[in-house]
Backbone:
């Protein structure tokens, strides 16, 4: 497959060609149908199914190892590892907790008494 280099001008032209009103008018059902019809489309993941990527991205953003993240937020390291390796999917409560950590990592650590000094 050839490598195609995109320039800023090419990207701007592509963005101008998008019918944003039509995109905004799409319903969730439209999006799901289009994704199902496109063999190249990645599957649409639920929050729980995308938790592995969420945990990895969050740890990377916070620059924490598995052990440090687990200790800071009171999650057993084995559970964290299972989520990241997709052996287990976090339940709804754990998914909600991960969202809180994602949005307010320092506040969450302070509330737990595990914030870095």
Residues:
């Amino acid at each position: 497959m050839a490598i195609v280099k995109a320039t800023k001008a090419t990207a701007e032209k592509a963005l101008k060609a998008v019918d944003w009103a039509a995109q905004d008018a799409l319903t969730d059902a439209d999006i799901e149908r289009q994704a199902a019809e496109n063999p190249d489309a990645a599957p649409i993941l639920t929050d729980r199914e995308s938790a592995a990527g969420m945990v990895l991205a969050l740890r990377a953003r916070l620059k924490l190892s598995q052990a440090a993240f687990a200790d800071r937020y009171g999650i057993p390291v084995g559970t964290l590892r299972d989520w990241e390796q997709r052996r287990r999917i976090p339940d709804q409560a754990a998914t909600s907790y991960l969202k809180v950590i994602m949005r307010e990592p320092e506040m969450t650590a302070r509330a737990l008494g595990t914030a870095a000094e």
In short: The mean pLDDT is 89.
